[in-house]
Design a protein that fits this description.
Elements: H1 5-35, H2 39-60, H3 64-84, H4 88-130, H5 140-157, H6 171-178, H7 180-197
């Protein structure tokens, strides 16, 4: 089922806050283990923090506004707790964790840009596949898709629709006599006038 924009934004906010809460809990767990004196627990906590941060990068890089705060919430408490112990071994953990965090920021940025480029290309190809390159009007595929949507809407609301067909008399003769550039310009002018006089459905 398709979402409205408002519903999608609401679910995104819910997802964001649940991500922040869960990341905070793991970050606090990591911080607590570094205040304790059990090296095995500290190693497990470090692995958990690294693993969860890697999951954030892989899963939600397309939403950097969620991914970056979640990364900081999971990594920084653990790193600061390790640094606060003033122990060279623990400081090593902290430095590695902060370096990993900075690398994660760069990876999120890269994945986000890659996804935006792919989505933009898909949208561009989808538009090109449904529109005539010369006039910008819907081609056969675009017309059929829009007609199906409008017809379904008309059935649901009980409204009537009309389909008009326009033919240019003696267009071929003019195109042959004056050349294709003139014929193209004529088609573009007709398309522009048509678009200016009809409202969007």
């Amino acid at each position: 089922r398709s979402f409205t924009i408002a519903a999608a934004e609401r679910w995104e906010r819910i997802y964001a806050w649940s991500s922040y809460v869960f990341a905070s809990l793991i970050g606090l767990l990591g911080a607590a283990t570094f205040w304790a004196k059990n090296p095995a627990h500290q190693l497990l906590a470090t692995a958990l923090v690294f693993g969860y941060a890697a999951g954030i990068v892989c899963r939600i890089s397309v939403r950097p506004g969620i991914a970056l705060p979640a990364l900081m919430l999971v990594a920084l408490p653990t790193a600061f707790s390790a640094l606060a112990r003033v122990d060279s071994n623990l400081a090593f953990y902290a430095v590695i964790l902060i370096a990993f965090l900075l690398g994660s920021f760069e990876t999120v940025r890269f994945i986000y840009r890659q996804n935006i480029e792919q989505i933009s290309l898909k949208h561009e190809f989808s538009t090109l596949a449904r529109h005539d390159a010369l006039t910008g009007l819907a081609n056969r595929l675009g017309f059929q898709e829009r007609l199906a949507i409008i017809a379904a809407r008309a059935r649901a609301t009980g409204c009537l629709i009309a389909v008009h067909s326009v033919d240019l008399d003696r267009f071929k003769e003019g195109n042959d006599a004056h050349g294709h550039p003139v014929g193209d310009a004529l088609l573009q002018a007709v398309a522009s006038r048509r678009s200016g006089t009809l409202r969007e459905c």
